[in-house]
Amino acid sequence: MPLLNEEIVEQVKQELADLAGSVRLVMFTQDFECMYCAETRQMVEEVVELSDQLTAEIYDFVADKEKADELGVDKIPAIVVIGAEDYGVRLYGIPSGYEFTSLLHAIRSVAAGEPELSEEGVKALAELTEPVHMQVFVTPTCPYCPQAVVLAHQMAIASPLVRADMVEATEFPQLAIKYQVMGVPRTVINETTYVEGAAPESMVLEKLREALGKAEE
Amino acid sequence: MELQLHVAPHEPEKASPKTEQLYDLLIIGGGPAGLTAAIYAGRARLKTLLLAGSFPGGQPVNTDLVENYLGFPDGVSGAELAQRFQRQAERFGAEVVPDEATEVDFSARPFTVRTPKAAYKAKTVLVATGAVPRRLGVPGENKFFGRGVSACATCDGFFYQGKKVVVVGGGDSAVDEAIFLTRFAREVTIIHRRDELRAAKIYQERAFANPKISVLWNSVVDEILGEQTVSGVRVHNVKTGESSIVETDGVFIYVGMVPETEMFVDQLELDEQGYVVSDRRQRTNVPGVFVAGDVQDPKYRQIVIAAGAGAIAALEAGHFLSEHSL
User: In the prediction, which pLDDT does A217 show?
Assistant: First the structure.
């Protein structure tokens, strides 16, 4: 049975019409598939069917460990969205519910390779000298969450030093506990700095600077 | 298994509305009022732009299950309903974009509505900006917001598995969300300032029948307590004046709404609570500017009522345009 019903297929086709470039969805699962691994793989396989510009690559997290290490994938299910280059756009856990929008948005943005950010934002990110890791914790039933995920993904596209992960909290409860996630969206920057809620670009940039400042102390 | 999937349209290039275009009707707000108006306006062949803001769909999106909107005998998720509204609006030609209106000028015609990116001109405007959840305004609330204090049970309920939570409020939302939270929490206490709930009886029946739910009557929250995480709330009884502490891991706040009218303060007549003042034809004090939905409704706040008012407003905008040969 398909995961995407006819109605969704039509909407996705519209969203993915005229992609600006080709995109690879690199998906990691494993032989004995994890919770939602099978569904995530199926979702990837069905989505790539809806645009000529899309291809899927399915890897085994265990057997293809080298590939996982190369892309920095440390948990599954994982989707790495790669365009002309690997911009650092990742989704961990199934992007279902509202997060399906985040996946589609990531595909469109990566295809274009151009971040949808303000001029100041692009400039600030171009000046980064140290790596930044953003983890955006979400639940599939959170309508505000895609805003935070999309913003983090745009920042990853804007700077080669930024890697941005969507992390579906219900599938990685140990991480939710580790980062004290009691509400979503919650963005963790470089393990040290937190942003609550779907904050505007300027505030997230400020937190990003704060995170880098902490590292220097 | 069936997975819910949402597709929120986002096509900046295609969706980018034209600033040089003079719109017949510009709708500010993408909730049930605005989207219903867009359907009516589109069918009346009015050139219509809807600025949905950063949160398209409006408040229903936050509702797990809508059971009182006509045509869905088994209920429908608020998110799905909002999506269906939007698709229906677009089908009849309204341009729906996620831009957020930040400033309006109703002193000159055509009217101007600004977003951070552009300025739009329109012959008539519908204000349907809705309302946002009211906060308690007590110590600890800001400190713990997003970290133990929440206004979105559907978003954050998962994090309270096996825990104890309190829900502050006594209306439909408070009681409905308290019931929803029993899917996760082991114990839910509704803290309400009166001695009876305002929520619809069907919600009350369900809440009273649920062994996980209890109600703390006549009580007001004075402070949210905790060091790293929320540990409790300090409440006082409005009848006896007695103060006590209720232990809890989380606080969900549903104490009513505040209308989104900041940008209209010098532009439209507002009542003392900040709601836009309108007549029964959804007209404001500025001819050609209409209003619908929760931004003008302190009392009912129902999807069906917002939708109805949106329909009236669009029809009235049509009349206004033909009366003035615009």
Answer: 58
Cα B243 to Cα B53: distance, rounded to the nearest angstrom: 42
Chain A positions in Cβ-Cβ contact with residue B58 (cut-off 8 Å)? none
Check CB contact under 8 Å for B148 and A104. no
Q: What is the mean pLDDT of residues B163-188?
A: 97
Report how many domains make up chain A. Answer: 2
Domain boundary among A85, A112, A139: A112
The reported pLDDT for the residue numbered A151 is 96
Residue A213 pLDDT level (bands cut at 50, 70, 90): confident
pLDDT in tens, A1-19: 899 999 899 999 999 999 9
Which 3 state secondary structure label does DSSP give B274? coil
CA torsion sign for A188, A189, A192, A195 is: negative
Q: What's the topology of domain B12-132+257-323?
A: FAD/NAD(P)-binding domain (3.50.50)
Domains of chain B by residue range: 12-132+257-323, 141-253
Q: Which of B155, B249, B252 to mutate to test the interface with A (most CBs of A within 10 A)?
A: B155
pLDDT band at B13 (very low <50, low <70, confident <90, very high): very low
Beta-carbon contacts of B186 under 8 Å, excluding residues fewer than 6 positions away, are B162, B163, B164, B212
- As a whole number, mean pLDDT of residues A75-103 equals 97
Model confidence, pTM: 0.88
Place B143 in a pLDDT band, splitting at 50, 70 and 90.
very high
Q: Chain A within 8 Å of B150 (Cβ-Cβ)?
A: yes
Question: How is domain B141-253 classified at the architecture level of CATH?
Answer: 3-Layer(bba) Sandwich (3.50)
Domain containing A129: what range?
119-216
Task: Give the separation between CA B60 and CA B40, rounded to whole angstroms.
Answer: 20
The C-alpha atoms of residue A67 and residue A86 are separated, in whole angstroms, by 13
pLDDT, position B14: 43
B4 touches chain A (CB under 8 A): yes
Q: Which residue of B has its CA nearest to A12?
A: B7
Residue A156: pLDDT over 80: yes
CATH value at residue A212: 3.40.30.10
Asked whether the beta carbons of residue B9 and residue A186 sit closer than 8 angstroms, the reply is: no
Question: Do residues A143 and A106 share a domain?
Answer: no
pLDDT above 70 (res B206): yes
Measured between beta carbons, the chain B residues lying within 8 angstroms of A8 are 5, 7
Q: What is the pLDDT of residue B9?
A: 66
**Distance, CA of A102 to CA of B5 (rounded, Å):** 11
What are phi and psi for residue A190, nearest 5 degrees? Answer: 45, 40
Q: How far is B74 from chain A (nearest CA, A)?
A: 20
Are A86 and A176 in a shared domain? Answer: no
Sheet with B243-247, side-by-side order of all strands: B219-226, B230-237, B243-247
Does one domain contain both A103 and A196? no
Which residues of B are marked as active site? 152, 155-156
The complex's ipTM works out to 0.88
Residues A139, B1: C-beta atoms closer than 8 Å: no
Tell me the residue length of chain B. Answer: 326
Q: Is there a common fold for B12-132+257-323 and B141-253?
A: yes
